[in-house]
Amino acid sequence: MLSRRQVVTGVVGVAAGSAVAGCTNAAGANPAARWAEPGSSIGPTPSRPPATVTFAPAAAATGVVPGQPVVVTADAGTLQSVTVTAGKTTLAGALDTDQRTWRSTGDLAYGQTYTITAVLADPSGTTAQQTSTFTTLKPGSTAGVTFQANAPNALKNGGTYGVGQFPIIHFSRSVNDRAAAEKAVVVETSPPVEGKFFWLDRQTLHWRPEKYFASGSRISVTVKALGVNLGNNVYGAGNSSTSYTIGPSRIMIVDSQTHQATVYQDGQVIRTMPCSTGKNATTKAADGHTVNYNTNSGPHVVLEKVQTVTMSSASYGIIDPKDPNYYKEDVQLCTRISYSGEYCHAAPWNGQIGRANISHGCVNLHTADAQWVFDTFQVGDIVDVRGTPVTLSIGNGLGDWAVPWGQYGS
């Protein structure tokens, strides 16, 4: 036989089941009535928070620096769509998988007013639209970035270069805040090596490791200059990147004392050639400056290869055809190693190759040897001249390798 307590309890349980099912009793009980454990109180159903959104940059922000992302976050509810526009231009971006955050993937432009339009839904599915605007800063001017192998030639993305080829970053305008510019440049190498920056001038930045790159190395350079104040209200125009690989280690040692050039590839001697370097003499140019005919000592980096170069003494001030040092010749198989006009080239007129130094500063070779060098060497390979009384300067080609490591860098 059931006790009275058991009977009451059973009735409450049924009533509870009816309430959960959403039914009313015959007496028209309040549909909102809910069963509760004995001793507990019955309160109203909690209200859901309204859908809200946060914008970054903040609404009405001015002077926003390009380079930072636009982020729209749903504080409650979910984002259905987000568009960011400036005139007819739409900024690229994407929603996270949880539809709570939208982030831009494109770059902001300078001097623009952007409108953010976000459509969001609250937990019940009701949608609403919110908008916000902000304005980016307008710089005095902008500086673009290019990558160079050397002054006359670009550094080719995906190219292969010799072990002496370090990256050169060239800004289209003068950089007054060098620290800001260097912070924007990231150089990564595989295998990893440490390097130093060196400013050749106010627009040209070099990055060099202590030793030549190892064969097979990969060098990647990223310049995140967008939004960076480079000084005097000059801002980086955008972000740039490039990468290249290092081919076989190819180094020619030119001994001006023995008049021999020895080529090493990956540490092994692969060719020995007689040569003739610059004569140990000076003369006066038409304007009175001194011309030194010695080939510069130090590691030279191959800059380019040109089949035929018209070489003339007029290029350094010897213009009188009666001057014994005057010349003008079409020279073949020219592998350039400095900006001042030093080449390894064919010199069939030089009868002293392998015996004496009588050139005007170039490394003279027999035609067959000059052809081999022209066919074998690539931009970035090393021609290391030794035994002359003058030293290659840092700005004469890629003369950085002639500077001791402890003295290199800004």
Topology at a glance:
Blueprint: H1 4-21, E1 52-56, E2 61-64, E3 71-76, E4 78-86, E5 89-90, E6 93-95, E7 101-104, E8 113-121, E9 127-136, E10 141-143, E11 145-150, E12 153-154, E13 160-161, E14 168-171, H2 178-184, E15 185-190, E16 195-199, E17 204-209, E18 218-224, E19 234-236, E20 239-246, E21 250-255, E22 260-265, E23 268-274, E24 282-284, E25 290-292, E26 298-301, E27 304-312, E28 328-336, E29 343-346, E30 363-365, H3 367-376, E31 382-386
Parallel strand pairs: 2-9, 10-19, 13-20, 21-31, 29-30
Antiparallel strand pairs: 1-3, 3-7, 4-5, 4-8, 6-7, 8-9, 11-12, 11-14, 14-17, 15-18, 16-17, 18-20, 21-22, 22-23, 24-25, 26-31, 27-28, 28-29
Average predicted local confidence, pLDDT:
90
- Strand arrangement, major sheet: 2-9-8-4-5
Tell me the CATH topology of the largest domain.
Answer: L,D-transpeptidase catalytic domain-like
In helices, the fraction of residues equals under 10%
Largest pleated sheet: 5 strands, mixed
Specify the CATH architecture of the largest domain: Beta Barrel
Name of the CATH first level of the largest domain: Mainly Beta
* CA gyration radius, whole angstroms: 37 Å
First-last Cα distance: 100 Å
Structural class: mainly beta
